[in-house]
Structures are given as structure tokens and as C-alpha cells.
Design brief:
seven-stranded mixed sheet, Endonuclease III, domain 1, alpha+beta, 44% helix, 343 residues, Nucleoside Triphosphate Pyrophosphohydrolase
């Protein structure tokens, strides 16, 4: 019988999904795709990756772009700090490393936003380094294959996965094996429901499959408490233009252009009192929405504040400018769409 590595690579060769970033292993294209794929669905990444690469086909193009343009091309992917860090990394590579990506995972990880998983993926895929890239999919495959009843966040499972992948890499291309193991976890060794063991190249010697407890391994992570925060979103408008403010460089939505907010759910009369320094013509409700971050939920109500004249506190933009030039956070999209529908 063939070894696990040989079976995995044979399965991957025939079953791998085709994505544009898999057809070209240039370090830049792999790096952009890996950063985009962090905590984001593949279906969401596909069109945005293609648009991003069309506008920024090289490290040099990304390094010299305006932050606003980079953010706009990142719109819809969320976690905008990834885009800012990717551009910072591009500037380091262009100005300090002669336009060339470092080849070792230990050096790649020194770039802004490049963690252990991403650095290992790039080093193995682009430069052949025998370095495991371990995400939740890889942890699940390893736990089931070796029968480890450990949780995803148990460091012992990560160590076992590292050893497992390194053993596979003794028999094949490190980058392909990293990619194949992730693909197996994403498409066959599924996190919820029954995995498709009949199609798995590891089924013959998978301990979890042999013992019939595939769905019980690995144990789930401890759930972090989600904090709910209430806000009132203020959409100041004047003659068809809308006010936005640039968020602070730290915290949620950092560095993005967004609508001003006040803590709590304010009623119209409370708003009139709070906005006594503004020349308010009318206050119109725009609806409500909840937006979920990783460990936080924003529970929002929104109002359009029609003004008699502009305020110097904020910069005003046309709806066309916001659509075409600025990356409006998804959390605030409901308020903007309501204003546009109202006309």
C-alpha cells in the first residue's frame, strides 16, 4: 500500500480545486491570496483577488498606491488591518529588500501581518521550505487521522500536527503537501456534520474513522464571550452630500472612513438635544442593524441628520464618491443604502 504522503498527493492531483492564485506560485500572488484568505470565505475572495491583482500586479504597484485606493479594493473582505499591513510589507520589500520576498518562514514572519501560518505557506509553496502551515483544517485532519481527542486550541495538537506534516514532507513537495492537507480539511474532512470518509485518501488508516468517532474529534475551542455594544449611527447630510469621519488608527474599523456614532440607542428628541450645536433641519430614522465582529457585536440604530449648512467637524462626500473611491465599512453599509434609497 502506498504511503499516506503518496496517497494524499495523488488525491490532490485529481481533486484539487482550481483557483487563479494556485496557477502561479510567484511570491507576490501567493502572499496576497494567503492574506486575503485569512478568516474569509474562498467565494468572497475570488472576485476581489482578481480585481486586486489587476490593479496592483506587483509589490511595486501596491507599495506606491494610496491607502484609500488599497482599502477600496479590499472592500467586502473585512479585517482592513490586513490590507494596511500588506501594503506596509510591500513597501519594506520594495525599499529594503530590492523587491524580493524573503525565502525563509522565519524571515517572512518579520513582515507586518505575516503570522506563522501565512509565512510557512509562502515559504513552502514558493521556496520549497519544509515548514508546516497549520490552520484549523490541518489540525482537524491530524487529530482524526491520529485519534487525538484534543481541542483545537490545545498546543499539544498543534505539536502533533507539526510532526505529522513534517513526516509527510520527507516524501514529497512541502508546498503541495501543505496545500493538499488544507484542501482535504476544507472539502472532505469537514468540521461539522459527517465527513466524506469514502473519498478520503487517509481513510484506510485513520483512527477516528476506524473507531467511528469522526465527528467527536477534535474537541471544540472554548467559546469566547461575545460583548454586545449599542450605538447610534449619525448620517449627516447636506444637499446630497454625506459626512464621514476617519476612524482612529487603532481599534475596530481603524483607519477607515465611517459615519460618526454615539454610544447607546438614542431617540429623536435625545438626538436633537445632543446635536444642539448643529443647525438641524430634520432627523429621519434609517433603520437598525447588528454586525458581528470576532468577539464583539454592534447593535446599531441609524438616523439621517439633515443640516441647514455643513459642519466643519466632518468632511462631506457625494454618494458617487463613497461608492467609487472610499471603502465604507460593511457594518455601516445599511445606513448608507437607506439614504441612497431615500434619495
Amino acid at each position: 500500500m502506498d504511503s499516506p504522503a503518496v496517497r494524499l498527493l495523488a488525491w490532490y492531483a485529481s481533486k484539487r480545486r482550481v483557483f487563479s492564485w494556485r496557477e502561479d506560485r510567484s511570491p507576490y500572488k501567493v502572499a496576497v491570496s494567503e492574506i486575503m484568505l485569512q478568516q474569509t470565505r474562498i467565494s468572497t475572495v475570488i472576485p476581489r483577488y482578481d480585481a486586486f491583482m489587476k490593479r496592483f500586479p506587483s509589490w511595486q504597484d501596491l507599495a506606491s498606491a494610496s491607502p484609500e485606493e488599497v482599502a477600496k479594493l479590499w472592500e467586502g473582505l473585512g479585517y482592513y488591518s490586513r490590507a494596511r499591513n500588506l501594503q506596509k510589507a510591500a513597501q519594506i520589500i520594495v525599499h529594503e529588500k530590492e523587491g524580493k520576498m524573503p525565502q525563509k518562514a522565519s524571515e517572512i514572519s518579520k513582515l507586518p501581518g505575516f503570522g506563522p501560518y501565512t509565512s510557512a505557506a509562502i515559504a513552502s509553496l514558493c521556496f520549497g521550505e519544509k515548514t508546516p502551515s497549520i490552520d484549523g483544517n490541518v489540525l482537524r485532519v491530524c487529530a482524526r487521522y491520529q485519534g487525538h481527542s484534543l481541542s483545537y486550541d490545545d498546543t499539544r495538537l498543534r505539536k502533533e500536527a507539526d510532526l505529522f506534516l513534517r513526516s509527510l514532507m520527507e516524501e514529497g513537495d512541502p508546498g503541495l503537501l501543505n496545500e493538499a492537507t488544507m484542501e482535504l480539511g476544507e472539502t472532505i474532512c469537514l468540521p461539522s456534520g459527517m465527513p466524506n470518509c469514502d473519498a478520503c485518501p487517509f481513510a484506510l488508516d485513520c483512527k477516528a474513522h476506524q473507531e467511528g468517532n469522526e465527528t467527536a474529534i477534535p474537541l471544540p475551542k472554548k467559546k469566547a464571550k461575545v460583548q454586545t455594544e449599542k450605538y447610534t449611527v449619525l448620517v449627516f447630510s447636506y444637499q446630497g452630500e454625506i459626512a464621514l469621519e476617519k476612524r482612529p488608527d487603532k481599534g475596530l474599523l481603524s483607519g477607515l472612513y465611517a459615519f460618526p456614532m454615539k454610544e447607546g440607542h438614542l431617540q429623536k428628541e435625545q438626538l436633537r438635544s445632543a446635536l444642539s450645536d448643529f443647525e438641524v433641519v430634520d432627523i429621519l430614522p434609517l433603520g437598525e442593524s447588528r454586525f458581528h465582529f470576532t468577539h464583539r457585536t454592534w447593535d446599531m440604530v441609524a438616523y439621517q441628520i439633515q443640516l441647514k449648512k455643513k459642519t466643519d467637524l466632518y468632511r462631506f462626500y457625494s454618494c458617487e464618491e463613497i461608492r467609487n473611491e472610499l471603502a465604507l465599512p460593511t457594518a455601516h453599509r445599511f445606513a448608507f443604502d437607506s439614504v441612497v434609497r431615500r434619495g
